[in-house]
Specification:
- The protein is α+β, with helices and mostly antiparallel strands.
- It is built from eleven helices and five strands; from the N terminus they run ααααααααββββααβα.
- A five-stranded mixed β-sheet has the order 3-2-1-4-5.
- One of its GO terms (molecular function) is metal ion binding.
C-alpha cells in the first residue's frame, strides 16, 4: 500500500475539540491577542481559522458547495493562503465567546459527517503532501483534518504557555499521519528496487515508519531490517518540522542520521502541510 495501513481518527475529534474549548474558555483578553507562530496571526486569528476549517469542510464535503473559486493561474498554496486570510480578517469581527460557541455548535456536525464516511472511499480532498499523482483515501483526508485541528491547538497553547493535548492517544495519530508523507518526501531520489529508509520518532507518542522503493516508486512499508537510510528525532521536533514550526536546519540539529545522505536530507525536510 502506497499510503500504509488505515488509521481511523474519528473517535478522537470530540476529545481534541473538548481540550481546545477548555483551553479557550480559560483565556483572558491579553491571551487572545498573543502572537502565534503563524505569521501575522494572533490567537484570535488562529481560532478563526479553525472555525473556517469547520465551516469549509461542512460546506464542501457535507453540502457539496463549491465555495470560493480559484483566480486565474492561482496555485493551490496561493488559493489557500488567500482564502484563509480573507476569512481570518472577517472573523476579527467575532467575539472570542462567539468563536467558542460556533466551534462547540459545529463540531458535532462535523463528527457526524465523518462518522458516515466510508474510510476506504475516495477522499473529498486529496492529501497533496502524501501524493499528487494518485487519489487519496478518505481515511487519510480525515486524518489530515485531525492533524490540522491538533496542530492549531498546539500553536495556541504555545502562544499562551499552556501545555496540553499531548497524551499519546491524542498525539500519536498526528505523528502517524504526518509520517505518511515519507514516500513523497523521497520521491526525487531514484534508488534500486528494494531500497529502504526508516524514520524513528522518539517519545511516548512516537513510533517507527519505513518507505521502500518498489515497482518504480516509493511506498510506505514496515520498518524491518537494516535500512539504506535512517533518521531519528524526538516527537516534538517531528511535528514542528512537518508543519514548519521550526526550520529544516533546526530539525537537522536535533536529529540523528545514518546511511544514504541524500535520503536522510530529504527525510529531515519532510513537510505535511500545503505550502
Amino acid at each position: 500500500m502506497i499510503f500504509g495501513p488505515v488509521i481511523d481518527v474519528r473517535p478522537l475529534f470530540p476529545r481534541e475539540r473538548q481540550a481546545m474549548l477548555e483551553l479557550l474558555g480559560g483565556l483572558g483578553a491579553a491571551d487572545w491577542a498573543a502572537p502565534t507562530v503563524c505569521p501575522g496571526w494572533d490567537v484570535h486569528d488562529v481560532v478563526g481559522h479553525v472555525l473556517n476549517d469547520y465551516m469549509r469542510r461542512l460546506s464542501g464535503s457535507r453540502d457539496r458547495y463549491g465555495g470560493a473559486v480559484f483566480a486565474d493561474d492561482e496555485t493551490l498554496p496561493a488559493y489557500l493562503a488567500r482564502t484563509n486570510e480573507e476569512f481570518v480578517r472577517s472573523s476579527r469581527q467575532l467575539s472570542p465567546q462567539l468563536l467558542i460557541e460556533l466551534l462547540d455548535h459545529l463540531g458535532p456536525r462535523l463528527d457526524a459527517m465523518w462518522a458516515a464516511t466510508d474510510l476506504q472511499a475516495a477522499a473529498d480532498l486529496n492529501v497533496s503532501w502524501a501524493a499528487t499523482d494518485i487519489g487519496s483515501p478518505a481515511w487519510l483526508d480525515i486524518g489530515r483534518d485531525y492533524t490540522e485541528f491538533w496542530v492549531h491547538q498546539q500553536q495556541v497553547r504555545d502562544a499562551v504557555s499552556v501545555a496540553g493535548a499531548t497524551e499519546p492517544d491524542l498525539m500519536a495519530p498526528v505523528l502517524d499521519i504526518f509520517a505518511r508523507a515519507l514516500p513523497r518526501t523521497v520521491r526525487m531520489h531514484d534508488r534500486p528496487e528494494g531500497s529502504t529508509a526508516h524514520l524513528e520518532v522518539l517519545g511516548p507518542a512516537g513510533g517507527r515508519w519505513g518507505t521502500v522503493r518498489q515497482d518504480g516508486r516509493w511506498r510506505m512499508a514496515e520498518p524491518t531490517g537494516e535500512p539504506d537510510a535512517r533518521v531519528s528525532m524526538d516527537q516534538d521536533t517531528f511535528w514542528r518540522l512537518a508543519t514548519r514550526g521550526i526550520t529544516v536546519e533546526e530539525a537537522r540539529r536535533r536529529s540523528t542520521v545514518s546511511g544514504d545522505a541524500d535520503l536522510t536530507a530529504a527525510i529531515t525536510s519532510l513537510l505535511a502541510v500545503v505550502a
